[in-house]
From TrEMBL:
One MF annotation (Gene Ontology) recorded for this entry: ATP binding
Name assigned to this protein: asparagine synthase (glutamine-hydrolyzing)
Binding site for ATP: 259, 286, 357-358
Naturally occurring in which organism (per UniProt): Candidatus Roizmanbacteria bacterium RIFCSPHIGHO2_01_FULL_39_12c
A GO BP entry: asparagine biosynthetic process
UniProt site positions, description: Important for beta-aspartyl-AMP intermediate formation: 359
TM region positions: none
Length: 583
């Protein structure tokens, strides 16, 4: 993985080597193995590198030897060898073994349509000197981030992380409407940022910056094209697509491990990864002590698969580690597993540079309980719900940490209230999960917490060919009789025993309620949300106080995630306020 930065404009004097030193330093965890800078009359490109493929000759920014095009690229192109072969047959010549050069040559051959040929996770900025345009793109599911803004001189800036834009001198203007979305979801929707003046290239989008203007378009989406394959045929096709996806993600010039929780998804990933390794792969698990402990299942899976297994316990240094994560994250984010994902990544990065994960399986194969919630009720209730209820609206209501009425009471300025946290034409729970929850909550968490430790995480379930196929299979191939991921479990039964495969789902979420009720955490929460908290620039002190009191004094567990969300927001404002425009 890498960090990228770029500036396009007519007043680029301050983006010299001295000016870019703090910018690249802010991205050093994304790329600790080296950095590079390219200076041209109208553009500056910067890059920090985590060396994974072509360790010797893959340095960036990179120039296409035959064209006046230059690139700063973050990510991995999994089909780069196949693409390279096709491009050589079309007459292109290569001087490196890197996937970066394949993007340059693909652009030379196909223009911006090169994106339809790329299979991977990526964010890049490609400068075309002849056309004087900057071509930007981000992968289909939004695994790799890409932000942009304008500086006070009118220069166009891009970066992998917002902190790099701050290092370049930008001040963020907090958007209360985005904060309102956070209070609803515990994260910022993936098509916006927490700042009015800093923007994001959304997942599956690309852009062209030309003549001072940015034009953005969507180049891919999951389309409904129902597939009528039999269950047996679908099962075999999924096995083949998944095996191919894992195989492609096992390509690197460094050692690759796997994050193994002991659940269905990570066990399948680890088992298939071991197929493509001549030696035992390293696997990594985190436990929550007496609260939630899947370590025995991870150990069982490791022993069955034959991996070299490592574990760590979360919880001991909750406050200290939570603050570390929040300080690193550029935007408010309250996923309960941010902290454990961080220490798991720290453990993994001490042994490997790349790790596979099971992210995306629950969204694709309907592994969450909310998918079959209605099906677990009596028939007369299901009929009533079908007539009088809207499943999608009910779902949004159920996942909202604060309802609109509750947020209205919270805000000092009620004009922040809005419902812009559901993407256009999103009317199905599954599509909301894939287009909003997955990139906004889960993939952003995995990217930032892994990059904190210079660890690259690859997600085999998010192979776009696999996703397109699974998305269009009949729902009863994915969930049935109150059970999700039935096809994945069916496949896993060929590897693990029935009692392992069909046990109750636990998930990766941390025991937030129990942690918050610990005396030292309670003291920390009350101090963090005291009268001096920066959160009261936005929210009412007395209403926040009642929420805290309801949870602690009133022993009302229903306020658990409200307290957690407000705490994380307060800590985020505390650590990032120095980068903000004064209110």
């Amino acid at each position: 993985m890498c960090g990228i930065f770029g500036a396009v404009g007519k007043k680029l004097d301050k983006y010299d080597e001295g000016g870019l030193k703090p910018v690249l330093s802010s991205l050093s965890k994304r790329g600790p193995d080296g950095n590079g800078i390219l200076f041209l009359p109208s553009v500056v490109l910067g890059h920090t590198r985590l060396s994974i493929v072509d360790l010797k000759s893959g340095a960036q920014p990179m120039k296409d030897g035959g064209k006046n095009t230059y690139i700063s690229f973050n990510g991995e192109i999994y089909n780069y060898k196949e693409l390279k072969k096709e491009l050589i047959e079309k007459g292109h010549q290569f001087i490196t073994e890197s996937d970066t050069e394949v993007i340059l040559k693909s652009y030379a051959e196909y223009g911006t349509d090169c994106l339809s040929h790329l299979d991977g996770m990526f964010a890049f900025a490609l400068w075309d000197e002849k056309k004087q345009v900057l071509f930007l793109a981000r992968d289909r599911f939004g695994k790799k981030p890409l932000y942009y803004t304008f500086d006070k001189d009118g220069n166009f800036l891009i970066a992998s992380e917002i902190k790099a834009l701050f290092a370049a001198g930008i001040k963020g203007e907090v958007d209360p409407e985005a904060i309102d979305n956070y209070l609803t979801l515990m994260y910022i929707p993936p098509w916006k940022t927490v700042y009015k003046n800093i923007h994001v290239i959304p997942p599956a989008h690309a852009g062209i910056f030309e003549d001072g203007k940015i034009k953005i378009w969507k180049y891919w989406e999951l389309e409904e094209k129902p597939i009528k394959d039999s269950y047996a045929k679908a099962r075999e096709k999924i096995k083949n697509l998944f095996e191919d996806s894992v195989k492609k993600r096992m390509v690197a010039d460094v050692e690759i491990g796997s994050l193994l929780s002991g659940g269905v998804d990570s066990t399948l990933v680890s088992a298939y990864a071991q197929k493509f390794s001549k030696t035992p792969i390293k696997t990594f698990s985190v436990g929550y002590g007496e609260h939630i402990n899947e370590l025995p299942y991870a150990k069982e899976a490791s022993e069955k698969i034959g991996t070299d297994h490592y574990t760590i316990q979360a919880g001991g240094e909750l406050i200290k580690e939570l603050e570390k994560v929040i300080e690193y994250m550029d935007e408010p984010h309250a996923d309960s597993s941010n902290f454990p994902q961080h220490i798991l990544s720290e453990l993994a990065s001490s042994k490997v540079k790349v790790a596979l994960s099971g992210d995306g399986a629950d969204e694709l194969f309907m592994g969450y309980g909310w998918y079959w919630k209605y099906d677990n009720t009596k028939k007369i209730v299901r009929v009533k719900n079908a007539i009088f209820s809207n499943r999608f609206k009910e779902h949004i209501k159920n996942i909202s940490v604060f309802s609109k009425a509750e947020r209205k009471k919270l805000w000092n300025d009620k004009s922040a209230l809005n419902d812009d946290f559901i993407g256009k034409n999103i009317k199905k729970i599954n599509l909301f999960d894939l287009s909003t929850y997955l990139p906004g909550q889960l993939l952003s968490k995995v990217d930032r917490t892994s990059m904190m430790h210079s660890l690259e995480v690859r997600c085999p379930f998010l192979d776009y060919r696999l996703a397109e196929y699974v998305y269009n299979l009949p729902e009863n191939y994915k969930m049935k009789n109150g059970m999700g991921k039935i096809m994945l479990k069916d496949i896993l039964l060929g590897i693990m025993p029935e009692e392992f495969v069909n046990r109750k789902k636990q998930g990766f979420g941390a025991p937030i309620k129990e942690w918050l009720r610990e005396k030292k955490t309670e003291k920390f929460v009350i101090e963090a949300l005291g009268v001096d908290s920066p959160i009261y620039k936005y929210l009412k002190n007395d209403v926040v106080g009642k929420i805290i009191s309801s949870f602690y004094a009133g022993k009302d567990d229903s306020f658990c995630y409200k307290v957690w969300s407000i705490l994380c927001l307060s800590l985020w404002l505390k650590h990032h306020g120095k980068y903000h425009v004064s209110r």
